[in-house]
Write a structure and sequence with these properties.
six-stranded parallel β-sheet, eight-stranded mixed β-sheet, Dihydrodipicolinate Reductase, domain 2, alpha/beta, 9 helices
Length: about 325
């Protein structure tokens, strides 16, 4: 399997590190946005070809599929280009920052029949997989998910602390993880939403604090708090409150409601959620099947985000 990487930033590096652990996979092309950093990334990972022109990479016969880790605002345009070129695609979260763009991606996938997957890593983290397996086995039913997604971000920087050419968003990026995960873990449609946001940052132009409420068909609820103002422990923390236990997931660590550790090392072949996500993408291509977290499955979350955005705009 020959893979092309689009994006030389923080998440491009995470995927490149993960792909090294998957047998029969070779990264043959890198498409970047800045020549200096693209060259440096190609050299670091021994990628034989790099370019700043996506069309040039798409024309190469030695690439079967692309992973898009470029800035969010160009995800949809690039995904459509990739599929138009007959290549499979994985789009890092979010697959788009508007519902219309997400629907266009799904329509193109149906038209081409290619494997198209969204980067919903939470579905693949062993901690969340452990909870999901318990739900599927009928041993746990979610009553509430309480989620905190906290960062300290007063400047436009990426996960490596480097300047961004675009502005990250609490709703379309960070809330997207939890909206999809709540629907995935309950196995139900989200039927009610509510949203509040704090003041917009004078320079970044985005709300720095947000509160989101979700309700599923059976009545399970999700309470999500997001902030770029949090000067403390960073990341996303998930509390599953169920009918038969409480569990807290912090990335790949899982504890029960009394902070007793739960061993999730045997849940999958790796403890790296991004590697497991990449393994699913490659397996789906090889097996000619729909992947877990396909763009079609992820579209439901995009519809919910669109409803939340409409609420926030009405409340301005």
């Amino acid at each position: 399997m020959k893979i092309g990487m689009i994006g030389e930033g923080a998440f491009g590096h995470k995927h490149l590190d993960a792909l090294k652990n998957i047998s029969g996979v070779e990264v043959t092309a890198l498409v970047g946005g800045v020549a200096e950093s693209t060259l440096a990334t190609a050299q670091k990972y021994n990628i034989p070809f790099w370019t700043l022109d996506l069309a040039e990479a798409l024309a190469r016969p030695d690439v079967d599929a692309f992973i898009i880790t470029s800035p969010t605002p160009i995800h949809a345009k690039q995904a459509l280009q990739v599929m138009d070129a007959g290549k499979h695609v994985m789009i890092e979260i979010p697959m788009a920052d508007t519902l219309a763009d997400a629907e266009a991606i799904c329509a193109k996938q149906q038209e081409t029949g290619l494997v198209a997957m969204a980067g919903h890593t939470r579905r693949f983290n062993p901690s969340h997989q452990w909870v999901h397996n318990k739900i599927v086995a009928g041993e746990l039913k979610i009553q509430q998910m309480d989620v905190q997604t906290y960062f300290f971000r007063r400047q436009n920087l990426n996960a490596l602390g480097q300047p961004r050419s675009w502005t990250d968003h609490l709703l379309w990026h960070h809330a997207c993880h939890t909206v999809d995960l709540f629907a995935y873990q309950t196995g139900e449609k989200i039927v009610q939403v509510q949203a509040l946001q704090g003041p917009k940052h004078p320079e970044l132009g985005i709300a720095m604090d947000m509160s989101i409420g979700l309700k599923s068909e059976s009545g399970a609820i999700c309470t999500l708090s997001l902030s770029f103002n949090n000067n403390g422990p960073l990341g996303s923390f998930f509390r599953y409150i169920g009918d038969n236990g409480t569990y807290i997931a912090r990335y790949d660590d899982l504890v029960d409601g009394h902070e007793k550790p739960i061993d999730v090392s045997q849940v999958a072949v790796s403890m790296n959620g991004i590697e497991l996500q990449d393994r699913e993408f490659i397996a789906a291509i090889r097996e000619k099947r729909e992947p877990n977290a396909s763009v079609q499955q992820a579209l439901a979350a995009m519809r919910v985000l669109d409803l939340l955005e409409q609420q926030l705009e009405l409340k301005q």
